[in-house]
């Protein structure tokens, strides 16, 4: 016992949250480092499609924690079901994607076993007495190394974009159902239909290309050109906080410490200075292209490609080139 790394994967409406695959990649790395086996568990009611995605990864076991009362999601039902999984599996490490849902149930699950949660980690490295978990402090200005003390299981949630999903080793796991007993009386919350902030609410964390606008866009009318650029390049529109505060784009488009954390293949930063609060949300992008009229803007230190220029000249030129 205590010889397992357990990944708690996440799905909604039978679709695997792609962040789960990043956590599988981290789990594969941790299990190899510590000589442990790797088990993934997928909680929910309808799981076949999510399970099929997980089954293509290299795992020692794949458990479907299936019960009708796990849909719609509630922290009470998840903790009751996953508590039974913990008792059966007795894992050493429990890795969880740091999603909104996990932020809701993971601290409760850890506390129910009298354990703490090392949350929102951006790295795992080998240490003398076990793995060292890296967390960011002060809006990403400082990294803290955290070592788990006391008895396992050690609960750890991982930030999106820190382990590339493409680095997951593939395999062929056979899903296995695990019976859990749940009673409706255990569930104290009643979930309402998910609320969408806007008709076209978007999950930027799974976007492959993001065209992101900052204060340098100068006025609301100019957003339309960025929208055309996003359409031309096949990307989603994102923004820094001032653009959201002005009400030029909805909150769901905000990227950064108080917005979404994203990890696209391509991130176009248009008129964004590169504050630590913005960087913390997009530094996981594979390729960063920055356009800024100030050659000394901090964003250029993080960009793979930089254009010193006026966004209002560069955007139309890019659209023309893409459409040409
Ligand atoms: C608690 C807290 C949480 C926060 N959370 C977030 C967050 O989640 N996300 C976030 O983004 N910010 C966040 N912020 C705000 C953050 O500190 C910065 O103020 C913000 O990121 C700056 O946005 P910006 O780069 O668009 O604007 P600015 O800093 O004003 O930069 C605008 C840039 O555009 C350039 N520019 C101007 N005109 C042009 C032009 N015509 N062509 C090209 N370039 C031009 C300028 O040279 C400048 O570099 C937070 C702040 C706090 C205190």
Task: Give the structure's gist in a few sentences.
28% of the residues lie in helices and 27% in strands. It has 9 helices and 16 strands.
Q: What's the arrangement of strands in the largest beta sheet? A: 9-8-7-10-6-1-4-5-11
Please give the domain count. 2
User: Uncertain runs with pLDDT below 50, 5 residues or more?
Assistant: none
The rough form would be described as: globular
Strand fraction equals 25-35%
CATH homologous group name of the largest domain: HUPs
Total beta strands: 16
- Helix and strand element order: EEEHEHEHEHEEEEEEHEHEHEHEH
CATH topology name of the largest domain = Rossmann fold
Oligomeric nature of the chains: single chain
Polypeptide structure, described:
The chain is globular and about 60 Å long. Strands 9-8-7-10-6-1-4-5-11 form a 9-stranded mixed β-sheet. It has a 5-stranded parallel β-sheet with strand order 13-12-14-15-16. A two-stranded antiparallel sheet has the order 2-3. It has helices at 19-34, 48-54, 75-89, 100-112, 223-233, 241-245, 276-282, 299-302, 311-323; strands at residues 4-8, 11-12, 15-16, 37-44, 61-66, 93-97, 117-127, 130-137, 142-147, 154-158, 175-178, 209-213, 236-239, 266-270, 287-292, 305-308. α3 (75-89) packs across α4 (100-112) and α5 (223-233) runs parallel beside α9 (311-323). It folds into 2 domains: 4-186, Rossmann fold (3-Layer(aba) Sandwich); 204-323, TPP-binding domain (Rossmann fold). The chain contains 9 helices and 16 strands. It has 324 residues and is an alpha/beta fold. It is 28% helix and 27% strand. It binds flavin-adenine dinucleotide.
């Amino acid at each position: 016992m205590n010889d397992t790394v357990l990944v708690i994967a996440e799905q909604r409406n039978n679709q695997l949250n792609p962040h789960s695959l990043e956590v599988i990649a981290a789990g594969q790395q941790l299990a190899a480092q510590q000589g442990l086996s790797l088990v993934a568990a997928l909680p929910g009611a309808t799981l076949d499609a999510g399970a099929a995605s997980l089954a293509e990864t290299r795992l020692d076991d794949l458990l479907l924690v299936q019960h009708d009362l796990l849909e719609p999601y509630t922290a009470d039902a998840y903790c009751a079901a996953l508590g039974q999984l913990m008792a059966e599996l007795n894992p050493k490490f429990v890795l969880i994607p740091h999603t909104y849902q996990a932020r809701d149930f993971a601290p409760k699950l850890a506390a129910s076993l009298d354990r703490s949660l090392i949350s929102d980690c951006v790295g795992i490295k080998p240490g003398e007495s076990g793995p060292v978990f890296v967390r960011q402090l002060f809006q990403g200005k400082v990294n803290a190394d955290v070592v788990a003390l006391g008895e396992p299981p050690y609960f750890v949630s991982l930030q999106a974009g820190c382990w590339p999903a493409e680095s997951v080793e593939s395999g062929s796991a056979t899903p296995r159902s695990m019976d859990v007993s749940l009673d409706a009386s255990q569930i104290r919350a009643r979930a309402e239909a998910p609320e969408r902030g806007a008709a076209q609410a978007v999950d930027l964390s799974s976007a492959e290309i993001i065209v992101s606008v900052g204060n340098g866009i100068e006025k609301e009318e100019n957003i339309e050109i960025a929208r055309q650029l996003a359409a031309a390049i096949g990307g989603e529109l994102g923004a820094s906080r001032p653009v959201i505060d002005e009400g030029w784009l909805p909150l769901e488009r905000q990227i950064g410490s108080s917005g979404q954390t994203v990890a696209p293949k391509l991130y176009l930063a248009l008129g964004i200075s590169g504050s630590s609060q913005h960087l913390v949300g997009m530094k996981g992008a594979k390729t960063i292209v920055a356009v800024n009229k100030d050659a000394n803007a901090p964003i250029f230190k993080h960009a793979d490609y930089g254009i010193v220029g006026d966004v209002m000249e560069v955007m139309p030129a890019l659209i023309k080139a893409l459409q040409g």
